[in-house]
Amino acid sequence: MLRPVCPLDAIPRGEAYRWAVDPPVAIFHTEDGEVYAVDDTCTHQDASLADGWLEGAEVECPLHASRFDLRTGQVDAPPAKKPIRTHRAEVIDGVIHVAVS
Ligand code: FES
């Protein structure tokens, strides 16, 4: 079920928002204007991916630089081995909505 999170313009392009649900979800607004939602906690250790570096549709973990594809959750660079969960994100009337998987 899609739930409203925040206005799209509350997250500038190239930045992320940590949605404090349980478990927390990181919502990214890419430079290209896409919106993606994934689990916020890295699958390697306890780092918040919303604090990571966004590059295109990938995020680099701030702790040990694993990279995750935000479209698929796949790991593109170690040390993480497990993918992150992705969640459906949609912008409806200027508000980001996310359906937690
Ligand atoms: S905690 Fe993310 S790569 Fe180690």
What does this 3D model show about the protein?
The chain has 101 residues and is mostly beta strands. The protein has one domain (3-99): Rieske Iron-sulfur Protein (3-layer Sandwich), CATH 2.102.10.10. Helices cover 0% and strands 44% of the residues. It has no helices and ten strands. Strands 1-10-9-4-3-2 form a six-stranded antiparallel sheet, with no helix packed on it. The termini are close together. FE2/S2 (inorganic) cluster binds next to loops.
Structural class: mainly beta
Number of helices: 0
Unreliable stretches (pLDDT < 50, length at least 5) are none
By CATH reckoning, the class would read Mainly Beta
Order of helices and strands: EEEEEEEEEE
User: Can you give the mean pLDDT?
Assistant: 98
Q: Can you name the CATH architecture?
A: 3-layer Sandwich
Topology of this structure?
Blueprint: E1 3-7, E2 15-19, E3 25-29, E4 35-39, E5 53-55, E6 58-60, E7 67-69, E8 75-77, E9 86-92, E10 95-99
Antiparallel strand pairs: 1-10, 2-3, 3-4, 4-9, 5-6, 6-7, 7-8, 9-10
Bound molecules: FE2/S2 (inorganic) cluster.
FE2/S2 (inorganic) cluster (FES) binds at residues 42, 44-45, 47, 61, 63-64, 66, 79-80.
Q: What is this entry, summarized?
A:
The chain has 101 residues and is mainly beta. The protein contains no helices and ten strands.
Task: Provide key terms for this protein.
101 residues; mainly beta; Rieske Iron-sulfur Protein; 6-stranded antiparallel beta sheet; 4-stranded antiparallel beta sheet; 0% helix; 44% strand; globular; binds FE2/S2 (inorganic) cluster
